[in-house]
Each structure stands twice: as C-alpha cells, then as structure tokens.
Amino acid sequence: MAHFIDALPPTPRYEAIAGPFRPFLERVRAEAVLREDSHRLLHPEIAEANRLGLTRLRLSEAQGGLGLDLVEFFAVVIELGAADPNLANALRAQAGTIEEVVTQPDGEWSDFVIAELGSGKLAGSGASEVGGATNRSYETELRPDGAGYLLNGRKYYTTGGLYAQYLNTFALTPEGKTVAMMVPTDAPGVTVLDDWDGFGQQLSASGTAIFENVHVRPEWVRPFPDRFPHALGFFQLYHIATLAGIARTIAQETSDLVTARTRSYLGRSNTERSADDPQVLQVLGRLASIAYVTRAAVLQAATGLQAVYAESLTTTDPARRDALSGIGELHVSQTVTVVTDLVLEAATVLFDTLGASAAKKGYGLDRHWRNARTLASHNPRIFHDRNIGTYAARGVLPETFLPRASDPAVRKFPVVANG
Prior knowledge:
The chain has 3 domains: 14-121, Acyl-CoA dehydrogenase/oxidase, N-terminal domain (Butyryl-Coa Dehydrogenase, subunit A, domain 1), CATH 1.10.540; 125-226 and 406-410, Butyryl-CoA Dehydrogenase, subunit A, domain 2, CATH 2.40.110.10; 231-394, Butyryl-CoA Dehydrogenase, subunit A, domain 3 (Up-down Bundle). The protein is 47% helix and 10% strand. It has 13 helices and 7 strands. It has helices at residues 14-18, 22-30, 32-37, 43-51, 70-83, 85-90, 92-103, 108-118, 231-260, 278-312, 318-349, 366-378, 382-394; strands at residues 123-126, 141-145, 148-155, 166-172, 178-184, 190-192, 209-216. A 4-stranded antiparallel sheet has the order 2-3-7-6, with no helix packed on it. It has a 3-stranded mixed sheet with strand order 1-4-5, covered by helices on one side. This is Dibenzothiophene monooxygenase. Residues 15-98 form the Acyl-CoA dehydrogenase/oxidase N-terminal domain. Its EC number is 1.14.14.21.
C-alpha cells in the first residue's frame, strides 16, 4: 500500500464529510480499467454517487445537498478525478447548474431547478456546438410556439447527457437573443447519442444531442441567461481539480506496482528489487510531489473563487461583477498550465519505473495520459498564460464573455404567444 502525505484538508470538517463516500470511490477506481476496456457506461456508479449526495454538494442540507463551500467542493472533485475522471467530468454540468442557482437571487426558475436536482435528478451539458457556431453564439434556435416554444438544433460535448434527466442548454431566439433552459432528455424530439470518439474520457458521455421540434414549456426557460461571476473560473478549475485527481492515482498505482515488483532491469538496476532502487524511488518521489502540489494549487485557487463568490452575493454593480469574473478566472488561470504540465509529466515518467511491464493493457496506465491530455485540450492552456501576462504587464483583467440581463441581446425573455 502506498504512503503519502497529502496537502492539508481544506477545512477541519472535511474528513468527516469525505469519509462516507471514500469506500465507494475506491471501488470505482478499482474497476476503472475493466470498465473502459468494455466501454461500460457509468450508470450504476452515477446512481450510487447520487445516492451518496455527490451530485448535490453545493446545495444546502435543507435543499437536499451537503452544503459545501467551494474549497471543500473542489477537494471532492479531486477525489472524484482520482477514482475515475470519467465520473468527475460526467458530473461537471450538474455542478455548474447547481452553482448557477445557489448564486443567483431566489426566483421561480431557481426554485424549480433546486427542487428537481435536490430530489436526485441530474443535468447534463447542452452548451457547445460544432460547425459555424462559436463559444459566443449558437445555431440552435428557440422559437415561440403557442404558450411555449419549439427548440431545434444540435449540440456536441454534451458531457453527462446520457446519465441525466435534463440538458442545461442554450439557444438563440429569432431576434438573436441568447436563451438558457433545462430540457428533459426524455422529451419528444430529444436524442442523446453516445458518439464521443475521443481517445480519452471515453465514458463521460460527451457526444451529440439533437433537438427536433422539441416543445419547450415556459417553466423550463430561465428568465435571463445571467451567469454567475465566477463561472469561467469554476468550470476551468473543475478540469484542473480532475487533473489533480489523476496525478494522485498515478502516484498511488505506480507505487503499488513498484512495491509488488520482484525483479529489476537486468544489468542496469542498482538493486535486485525495483522498490529498493534509488533511481526508481526518485521517480516515485517526483510523482508523489506532483500529486501534492497539484492538489494544493487547486485548493488555493478554490479559496480565491470562494472569496469572489462571497462578494458576488452582495454586489449588484455590473462593472464590479465583470471585475470579479476576471479576478476569479485569474486565480484559476495561474494553475492551468503549471498543473497541466505536471500531470502530463507524471503520466509519462511513471513508465520509467516499471520497464516494459508498464505497457501491459491490464494495468491501464495509458489511460492517465489519455484522460489528462483530453481534459487539458478542452480549454486550451495557451490562452490562460496570455491573460496572466496581460494582467501582469498592464493590470488588465480578462474580458468577460458572461451574458448579463442588462445586455441588450440577453434581456429578460418573456413568453410570447403566436398571433
């Protein structure tokens, strides 16, 4: 059994919070290789995570959740990523939807979402598109139809969609206004496909969702698509926390395999057993250090997001909310390239400890690099360094692309009946 000194728990109560779900996560990790080899989707694991409350971490206990702050929350994401980054990523949209409603003022739509997700229903992602649309516009359209709407379009990277009862999706009105809504995955005209063909994150259900004349009820539509000020940082840090979890499992699995190894590399090793070889131990030490540092970086960035979140609850000035968005993003951006580089390094140098045995398919050690590289490609890290440098040189915060209700293109979207 591997021995590690981890970065300190985020709060004194964290171990009591984490203890009940750790046996489940260890089972998830133990079955990760077989699950990927057979492409068995995570339906039973998602169901158990839901039962344990891992899908409702930021909701209050009265709302059916665990009431975690953001530092505790991201510590849990690290543990999810260590168990299986597919599980962590499949719950990312759910976490973001909950963050939306715990941050926004109370209202009928928030009450609806809290009631649904607090009772155990899940939300998958329905934001990204391929083709001519960019990350600031959509080709998916929502048109008035009687007392409700008709939704038509196609989404990709619908992470978690196959496990969810809702897709948290975005569309444009005929007037070009951005609209957000929660669409049931079993509504007529909704099709969710398991067609993600990436070499990593193969079980996170990140394929295509198709909307064909889907009748959308007014209560599913968010009155305006305001995003919480720390949204950009939140969604990026979720990936970085998952990467930190991968680093932790790399260190653990490599150490366990080295300890169990009864031979060494003939003619070049310093000792008869690999576990006694100082050069092998040096690599293990590097892997453990990477796991420590990446976890510490995530928790520190989460502390910054928690401060941004706390201020946002009392700030109504649009300029200050934009500034908070930039501040939150920079807290996270300063971890992105460093953590990504370290985890990709760990996923490569681990093979130096085991020789050709490391390539055995049954170990599944290649999954760590594939999953880490795939996660790191979702939001290209080169842009984060540029934003950090711009702030360092000129004091200019990153531009926010978060829609606000005060923006002309996203003002409150009322139900309008035809004719």
